[in-house]
Specification:
Strand order of the largest sheet: 1-2-4-3
Mean pLDDT: 90
Helix content: 55-70%
Structural class: alpha+beta
Strand content: 5-15%
Number of helices: 11
Number of strands: 8
Distance between the termini: 73 Å
Radius of gyration: 35 Å
Order of helices and strands: HHEEHEEHHEEHEEHHHHH
Shape: rod-shaped
């Protein structure tokens, strides 16, 4: 099951009393695909949402709405004038689709917003992307939904995509706040766990990349130092180096994989990493003098 379906399932389980059912159905109808005095059409690709719509519709209006399934799409197409008139009268719908706050029973704004999500909302799998959006039927409802989200501290943006009004949220914390508000607290925790895992994984990757880069740097430095030492050995002999330079030169030849810190710790008189690096710079200067004299 997808993350979005998990969210819908948890939202539905939170709609537990008649007040919440009334407000949730109001959100589902108001933000449905079509809402006119002649025809009301609620559509969803989610089986659990379709089952829930039928259930709370019966709870509020004491009748079973007609449902048709075509492919993966469930359509509740209500065109009986007596039913549409009762719906319009119950929820005080007018020709202009706009939120009537009197229809949102006290303390049920979250259930109303949950209904909006069930009607036209979706959320991506947080493993892939942080993105929650609503496909909204109209400019006025778009503005009103943004206000609702702003009231809970969520900054949402709007756009028109292929002629369709969209309200979307991309910030992970804002998505968490939205999911919590509409009743999907467990899914919020799941999203937070994914964020923690991603952060740990990214840090581990950065450390691994850093370690790999350091290894590459050590290997290249060792190869350069070894070439300088072998050149000096072949032309002048290592015995002509000072005791300090000769010791690090021989240590490098015997231990090509050692870091500067490790070489310094294993000298007869241990020195710091910078001390070892200083000695190798002197060896590099001697090798460069030899190279220049042979050209």
């Amino acid at each position: 099951m997808s993350f979005a379906e998990d969210v819908r399932r948890e939202i539905i389980s939170s709609i537990t009393d008649n007040n919440k059912r009334f407000s949730c159905l109001y959100g589902m109808l108001l933000y449905s695909r079509e809402l006119t005095p002649e025809r009301i059409c609620f559509q969803t690709e989610s089986r659990i949402t379709a089952d829930f719509f039928g259930k709370i519709f019966r709870n509020v209006f004491h009748m079973t709405p007609p449902c048709r399934k075509s492919g993966i799409l469930y359509s509740f197409d209500i065109s009986d004038s007596k039913i549409t008139e009762e719906i319009y009268r119950t929820y005080r719908f007018i020709n202009i689709r706009t939120i009537n706050s009197e229809m949102i029973i006290t303390d049920s704004i979250s259930a109303f917003t949950a209904g909006i999500f069930l009607s036209c909302g979706s959320v991506n799998d947080p493993e892939k992307e942080y993105h929650l959006e609503f496909s909204v039927p109209g400019e006025i409802l778009t503005e009103e939904l943004i206000i609702i989200l702003n009231d809970i501290g969520v900054t949402a943006r709007s756009a028109i995509r292929r002629g369709q009004y969209m309200v979307y949220v991309k910030d992970s914390e804002a998505i968490e706040d939205t999911l919590t508000f509409i009743g999907a607290q467990n899914c919020t925790l799941e999203l937070m766990n994914v964020k923690i895992w991603k952060d740990v994984r990214n840090k581990a990757n950065r450390i691994a990349n850093c370690d790999s880069a350091n290894i590459d740097k050590t290997v290249k430095a060792s190869a350069r130092q070894t070439a300088d030492i072998e050149l000096i050995r072949d032309f002048n002999g290592l015995e002509n180096l000072s005791p300090e330079l000769r010791e690090v030169a021989e240590m490098r030849l015997e231990n090509p994989d050692m870091s500067l810190k490790e070489i310094g710790a294993n000298l007869s008189k241990p020195v710091s990493r910078s001390g070892v690096n200083h000695r190798f710079r002197k060896i590099a200067d001697i090798a460069e003098t030899i190279r220049n004299s042979t050209h």
